[in-house]
Amino acid sequence: MSAYEGLSSRLRTALCVSGGSMDLDVLGRTLGLNSEQLTRLVEEEEGRSIRIREQEGKRVAVYQSELRVCSERTRKCAGDCGKLHLCRYFIMGSCTRSPCKFNHSVQTPHNFQVLRQHQLEALGTKVLQQLLLQNDPSLLPDVSMRCGS
């Protein structure tokens, strides 16, 4: 693993375990980088694994991932989708089905392979839930067009 790959991995982990985002100054200190090194890292990663946004007058790095949940919800999927096979409500922390017919484990062989492809296999379930909620548009609530303003 090159020094850059190691730094990229540390960046991903730092952002994911902090809820998916972090103030750039705090991120630099967390990774042990000076301002020049942090600037180079941001230039390299922005648009690929992070977005930079302004929040309360500060620049914040937000982790972005192509990791998604299978829209077929494992019923029709042949397993070659490259997406996680998980219960949508489990990810949102609100599955009340007992027993639920959808998967609640990130450790199945399929899910582990998908996580490995995204270099996220070392993250815990709660961190992955946050990451998915932050990045997967299919997990957003449906918007009703009948609501009046």
Automatic annotation (TrEMBL):
Keywords from the UniProt entry: Metal-binding, Phosphoprotein, Repeat, Zinc, Zinc-finger
InterPro entries recorded: ARTD-AVP, Zfn-CCCH_PARP12, Znf_CCCH
A GO MF label: NAD+-protein mono-ADP-ribosyltransferase activity
GO CC annotation, single: nucleus
Zn-finger (C3H1-type) residues: 86-107
Residue span, C3H1-type domain: 86-107
Pfam families per record: zf-CCCH_PARP12
PANTHER family: POLY [ADP-RIBOSE] POLYMERASE (PTHR45740), PROTEIN MONO-ADP-RIBOSYLTRANSFERASE PARP12 (PTHR45740:SF6)
Name this protein carries in UniProt: Poly [ADP-ribose] polymerase 12-like
Native species: Pelobates cultripes
Top-level taxonomy: Eukaryota, Metazoa, Chordata, Craniata, Vertebrata
